[in-house]
Amino acid sequence: MPLFRPDPTFYPSPRLAAEGPPERLAYVALLRADGRPDGFGVVDVDPGSPGYGKVVHTVDFPYIGDEIHHFGWNACSSALCPYAPHPHVERRYLLVPGLRSSRIYILDTRPNPAEPRLVKIIEPEEVLRRAGYSRLHTVHCGPDGIYISALGGRDGDGPGGILILDHDSFDVLGRWEVDRGPQVYAYDFWWHLGYDTAVTSEWGAPSLIEPGLNLDDVVNRRYGHHLHFWDLRRRRHVQAVDLGSEHQMVLELRPAHDPTRASGFVGVAVNVGDPSGSGGPLSLLPLPGPPKPN
After folding, report:
1. Contact at 8 Å (CB) between 291 and 181?
2. Low pLDDT (below 50) residues in the chain
3. H or E stretch including 144?
4. Could you list the residue range(s) of the whole structural domain that residue 117 is in?
5. What is the pTM of this model?
6. Is residue 27 part of a domain?
7. Among 29, 66, 140, 255, which is disulfide-ready with 264 (CB 3.0 to 4.6 Å)?
């Protein structure tokens, strides 16, 4: 019987990860607006290397108009989840979704991490058929699969949500949500294994986003301004928390570095009353009482 050992790059907490060896390569999205396909770049970040600070390798994708943004690993420390362990999974593959195309590119960083190779493409028709989602945005390696957020649904604008891919085969397994409650808009998501809680944020419908930012939509408060709390294992909506319609586009979520703390941070793009960025701390625990309607 093989002996499974977790990937050495998995850490029980962000604090321990910060104490690990520094990265020598950085992976960056290459967003192009000159009629060429988007690409993917590798930057040398080793101060002792003659190529320090330079792009040392690029991958050109085969299609025009993907608009790639947030990509992520196939596996990370969530593979250490006590109720859904994946000790055999390596942090090896990068999943790169297209926001406009709803296509997913999979890059293999082995055998040479400085020269990742395109090894698989998941077409948007497959994503829509199996999960009912479109306009893919953010990738996180979850406890029971690879999570990808989607801004759009089968009929275009929504509801958006999260789809799951298999850790090993990258098959699209389907929609994550069992009961989404009042949630319609989607953007980022995070979770706390210790409290069995997930949190999702809101940007807006694809029809608001794809034409570019319209100040009339901001002033008239048409973007998302809620946080949604979920039962992580049961995949059920627990509560919607309204941050106030003046806080338009509730975006990035980040947990506390201490895994025993039920807190984190959320960034908000625009405060309509004071046209500047806003945001602040949040609790990763649902508030007491019944879910609040949208």
Report:
1. yes
2. 1, 286-294
3. none
4. 71-283
5. 0.90
6. no
7. 255
